[in-house]
Amino acid sequence: MAKAELERIQNLVESKIAARKELIAAQNQHQAVLNEIQGLEQQLTILGLTETAVKKMREQKTIATFSVAAPIGGVIAERNVVLGETVEPSKVIFKILDPSVVFVEGDAFEESLRELKVGQSVRIRLASYPDEVFAGKISRLSPTIDPQKRTLRLWVEVVNPSRKLKPNLFSEMNIVLGGQGEVLAIPQEALISIEGESFVFVEEKDSYRRADVVLGARDDRFVEVKKGILPGDKVVTDGKQQLYTQSLIARQGGAALGGHTH
């Protein structure tokens, strides 16, 4: 419209009907509109539109459809518009999620603060997939401690190619802390804890014996044994409950444990 008005006044000036100051005002208005259009086109380019798409929009008098380019790739997690709705520039119309990488939020007790650092390995377990472990690394640590819970919030980046990890799932997080040198450790599956006692069954030549153990540090897979067994001892993992039942019978009858459980 500014261009049409400029051309009209130019014709009037040439016909000596309009004053020259009207022509200057129309020229200034036309230039202001061109500057505004140029600024809007630059914004569209920044948002991801190609120069070809911007040129096509410029040439069209009316726009029936318009493709909105997303700044990232992924899947639509939330839609806040309906077809035909008028939207303002500030409105969030879609929320896009990139499921190939997820961030797991967790809390660590303040006693572990000095052992935590960005880049540290973390193992994630989900109730939905109890037999799987998802590996990640600490990407960020909160600068403050929660005053009520006395915990430190941390974020773990996990590569998620299988798309099994989803937003708002609850998980168990195990942080791999610094090593303490060589320690004697056994699988969690080998340990029996009953009425405050912890013990394992050790395989011997023709039988099994119960060994009471003193435990140390543990994670989601192994537990440190400070006393009760020696390096090289073979502990039972599968069938330990059967051996425990047999041990109760053996105590009553004075017999040794036998069998073929491993």
Walk me through the structure.
This protein is of the alpha+beta class and 262 residues long. It folds into 4 domains: 68 residues; 29 residues, no CATH class; 75 residues, Efflux pump adaptor protein, beta barrel domain (Elongation Factor Tu (Ef-tu), domain 3); 69 residues, conserved putative lor/sdh protein from methanococcus maripaludis s2 fold. It is built from 4 helices and 13 strands. The strands form 4 sheets. It has a 5-stranded antiparallel beta sheet, with no helix packed on it. The longest helix has 27 residues. It is elongated and about 115 Å long.
Radius of gyration: 36 Å
- Gross morphology is elongated
Find the count of extended strands (DSSP E, 2+ residues): 13
CATH top level class name of the largest domain? Mainly Beta
Which range best describes the helical content: under 10%, 10-25%, 25-40%, 40-55%, 55-70% or over 70%?
10-25%
Secondary-structure element string: HHHEEEEEEEEEEEEEH
Q: How much strand content do the residues show?
A: 25-35%
Number of domains as seen in the coordinates: 4
Q: In which order are the strands of the major sheet placed?
A: 3-6-5-4-7
CATH homologous superfamily caption of the largest domain: Efflux pump adaptor protein, beta barrel domain
CATH topology of the largest domain, anyone? Elongation Factor Tu (Ef-tu), domain 3
